Amino acid sequence: MSHGLLEILRYFLLALIWLFFIYAARMVLVEVRRGRTDRPAAEAQAPPPAAPRSAPAPPDRAAPTKLRILEPAERRGVAYELGTEITLGRSPGCAVPLEGDTFASSIHARVFRRDGETWLEDLGSTNGTFLNGERVAKPVRLRRGDQLKVGHTLLEVGR
Question: What is the pTM of this model?
């Protein structure tokens, strides 16, 4: 091998190492930011400690129970049951797999239940999560009929 080719390979390897460190730092930053936004939301929704707690509230009959795909057309009508917590993304481990949607992150967003209500949270995705056309910056409550956009996939919340 020529000396010039080895020099090019050395710089290429150095660039790859720097890209890895930048990616790792970004992931840590996303997790730290998500941790900061989760704590105040959880504290704000927790009942005051002095308040006596009666029997648990009955489940909300109007609470959403399914996510149904509206777009892309080839997946229209596919529905997913909402459990306690589900994730949406390209990763095969997600409850709502969005394979083929190159604008969705691996683990893009999550839908979870808290105190009988259903919530949507963006998980630090690159292209954002949108609820009824508005970008989701913190966990937001879902209602039947809401439309959420993850990447190029449009879903509707329903029963």
Answer: 0.59
DSSP 3-state of 7: helix
Q: How far apart are CA 149 and CA 155, in angstroms?
A: 6
Q: Is the peptide bond before 56 cis (omega within 30 degrees of 0)?
A: no
Q: Which helix (H) or strand (E) holds 150?
A: strand 147-150
Task: Tell me what pLDDT residue 9 has.
Answer: 93
**CA 78, CA 153: separation in Å to the nearest integer?**
12
Q: How far apart are CA 147 and CA 159, in angstroms?
A: 13
User: Hey, which residues does 142 pair with through a beta bridge?
Assistant: none
Nearest to 150 by CA among 63, 95, 80, 71: 71
* Contact indicator for 120, 148 with CB cutoff of 8 Å: yes
φ/ψ region of 157 (left if φ > 0, alpha if ψ in -120 to 50, else beta) reads beta
pLDDT tops 70 at residue 44: no
> What was the pLDDT predicted at 75?
87
